[in-house]
Amino acid sequence: MNPITENAPLAPLTTLRIGGAAKQLWTVEGEDACVEAIRQLDHDGEPFFVLGGGSNVVIADEGFDGTALRLVYEGAEHQQRDDQSFAIDASAGDDWALLVDALVEAGLSGVECLAGIPGLVGATPIQNVGAYGQEVATTIEAVRVYNRATQQVEEMTAAQCGFAYRSSALKGNADLIVLAVRFLLERSSLSAPIAYRELAEKLGVEVGDRAEAEAARSAVLELRRAKGMLLDEHDRDTWSAGSFFTNPILSGAEFEQLEQRVREHCGDGAQAPRFDAAGGMVKSSAAWLIEQAGFSRGEQRGQVALSSKHTLALTNLGAASAAELLAFAHEIAARVDELFAVQLRPEPALIGLEW
Ligand SMILES: Cc1cc2nc3c(=O)[nH]c(=O)nc-3n(C[C@H](O)[C@H](O)[C@H](O)COP(=O)(O)OP(=O)(O)OC[C@H]3O[C@@H](n4cnc5c(N)ncnc54)[C@H](O)[C@@H]3O)c2cc1C
């Protein structure tokens, strides 16, 4: 039987600490209990959403008129594949950051730059979490899901997951509930090739070189802490959902238009950040655009502030509402659109809210 709480406040279960109550909160322990709970909810026609670590959600002030399903089961298993690689079957309820620490300590390489990302394993494939030049998609072999459409437990290959920048076929698909994730990692004390310039500089290596995985993990944690991207309840800059906006992915023509707007607004010498993205697209920087649009670190609207360390994080100063947070986010997005004709999109899942 799953413990059920009626009229359960959700704010304390999120890193933003914002939002009202759910009609019910079901806490499920174990994969079978999770499947049973979903079948029951669907049978009853009860709306629900899965709440992991609550680090990538904004919950409406009115709360959620349905059930929040919380997965708390853990248990990662390692299995040697060959001399070079290990498969790790991790449960949806495993804490991601703790898992990364354990994998690096066990001499397994491929996720060290994803250290310190809050939340649970089950959410990692949803938006293909990434940081410092690494994405979880590069090590995911398969994802076990409960498919509400077929009412079966199914295995999705990485290709079927359709991973892309902060996106996947699972994102926004309420039918697919992640039960477990299988990662394939290299047995090595060395990191994967370092792809992020700032991290390479900190490690004293060239982009494309490998470093000691433990050194890479520690360097990433230091960088994250300095940017308020490492959870710390005493650091109000981390009362956030991480980056609030995804970086814009533009076609070549759209990027040219952006360059033109940047010259007009910021002067001839100004250049929008440009990174190659999949499919010939170009990724620019949401944080840079926000700053060029005139917003500064620490800028406040009521109880909401841009992080004092990073313009991409919207933070709760203590008593913020979801309405206040979205109003500030809309103000930022509208100004960026007006000046640069780029439409910023929110990264967190909005529960009971529309963008
Ligand atoms: C300080 C901070 C730093 C961050 N840094 C990064 C970063 O560097 N890179 C990055 O990519 N993200 C980052 N994030 C965002 C966040 O940590 C990740 O997206 C994380 O994977 C969310 O996990 P969660 O368990 O908290 O998911 P939740 O916030 O609980 O859920 C997020 C979404 O996934 C759905 N979901 C969760 N679990 C499941 C499941 N088992 N099956 C189906 N759907 C599910 C939820 O319904 C919701 O729609 C950061 C957040 C914070 C607060």
What is this entry, summarized?
This protein is α+β, with helices and mostly antiparallel strands and 355 residues long.
Question: What report would you give on this structure?
Answer:
- There is one protein chain.
- The protein is an alpha+beta fold and 355 residues long.
- The chain has three domains: 68 residues, Uridine Diphospho-n-acetylenolpyruvylglucosamine Reductase, domain 2, CATH 3.30.43.10; 150 residues, Uridine Diphospho-n-acetylenolpyruvylglucosamine Reductase, domain 3; 116 residues, Alpha-Beta Complex (Uridine Diphospho-n-acetylenolpyruvylglucosamine Reductase, domain 1), CATH 3.90.78.10.
- It is built from eight helices and 20 strands.
- Strands 6, 7, 8, 11, 12 and 13 form a six-stranded antiparallel beta sheet that branches. It has a four-stranded mixed beta sheet with strand order 1-2-5-3.
- Strand 18 and strand 19 form a beta hairpin.
- 43% of the residues are buried.
- The protein binds flavin-adenine dinucleotide.
- Flavin-adenine dinucleotide binds next to strand 3, strand 9 and strand 13.
